[in-house]
Design a protein that fits this description.
With 129 residues, the chain is an alpha+beta fold. Helices cover 22% and strands 12% of the residues. It is built from two helices and seven strands.
């Protein structure tokens, strides 16, 4: 995670909230401190699951974490009633080609439009916009 946000997602409905990078990093560090026998990846999974249950979500994925062969738009499944336990609170990347026309996105499991709560529009990267 970067310490300076590169994107600002559309806010979620109150009282749900997307954490800032610093808040999220402190939560993950607390999970690691709670049980030093687990690695960072496991601590991230635990922190994400616990935070999501109380309506707090990690910041969007950074450009380096995204599939460079796909559109950079992202959505956050924040309603536990509309997704499974594996996707709840996990940022989803658009599976369409970079620079595809329009503001609608799809990754085969989720479909969304720019401007919906918990979304990040495509970011320019090598001509995408």
């Amino acid at each position: 995670m970067s310490t300076n946000a590169t994107v600002t997602p559309v806010p979620l409905p109150a009282p749900l909230r997307i954490l800032g990078d610093d808040e999220y990093e402190r939560a993950v560090k607390a999970a690691v401190r709670a049980d030093r026998s687990i690695g960072r990846a496991t601590a991230v999974e635990i922190a994400d699951a616990v935070l999501a249950e109380v309506g707090l979500f990690p910041p969007p994925l950074e450009p380096a974490e995204l599939d460079s062969e796909c559109c950079t738009a992202q959505c956050l499944p924040f309603d536990a009633e509309t997704c499974d336990a594996y996707t709840f609170g996990t940022w989803q990347q658009c599976g369409d080609e970079p620079g595809h026309p329009g503001d609608d996105h799809d990754n085969g499991e989720f479909s969304w439009s720019d401007g919906q709560p918990g979304t990040v529009p495509a970011r320019p990267a090598g001509g995408e916009g």
